[in-house]
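Cross-check.
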Amino acid sequence: MTLASYIFGFIISTLFGVIFHLLRGGSAGRFLLYLILGWVGFWAGHWLASILGWNFLSLGPLHLGMASIGSLVSLAIGYWLSLVKVEEK
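Predicted model, tokenized:
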């Protein structure tokens, strides 16, 4: 992969986290959580697609389709897990 692919992937995954935060809202902690989940899910989806040899919406060496799906799934699962509320005794 080229440096331009890494930069483009970082920008796209950051946009996923930012847009998710704009849609769901929350504090600065939630914003940081969504950014990290977007990054991790994006690169995990890219890595999975490269290991399995899938070429769904590839853009050069970047497997953009699977990376986007990975990012969205990661954000959805992270949001769902963050809804747990702790009861105080």
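The first helix runs from residue 3 to 24. The first strand starts at residue 58 and ends at 59. Passed to J.P. for a second look.
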